[in-house]
Amino acid sequence: MKVTVAHLYKKLEELDRDVVELKKLTDRLATDREYSPILKETFLSEMSKLEDQKAEILGLNIEKQGTSVHSLKAKTTDTRSTEVTKKEINVTFPPEPKKPDRPVRKY
Predict the structure, then answer these.
(1) For position 3, what pLDDT does the model report?
(2) Element spanning 49, H or E
(3) From CA 81, how far away is CA 72, in angstroms rounded?
(4) 70 burial class (0-12, 13-18, 19+ CB within 10 angstroms)?
(5) How far apart are CA 43 and CA 13, in angstroms?
(6) Dist. CA 83–CA 95, nearest whole Å
(7) Which pLDDT score is estimated for 78?
(8) 29 alpha-carbon distance from chain centroid
(9) Percent of the chain, pLDDT > 70?
């Protein structure tokens, strides 16, 4: 799959924003409600998944027009990363794990 580095940076920013929003929602939960622990657990679980996605993106190997393979994590500290943003890279994503079938809690 061909993806530009700019798209990956945009996705990283989106993941960071989502984590911040979930943190704010977690902090605003009323503790005296019976649904609060379930929501808090769900928010924390989603934040963990988003952080895992971020780590996965940062661990991807990138290929610059048929040359050597680099890690995206190394490019984030490189001051020349703006040169790479316009070029296409090949990215292979590992298969997404299946979501376990859990019963839905009904009240």
Answers:
(1) 78
(2) helix 36-58
(3) 10
(4) middle
(5) 19
(6) 30
(7) 46
(8) 24
(9) 59
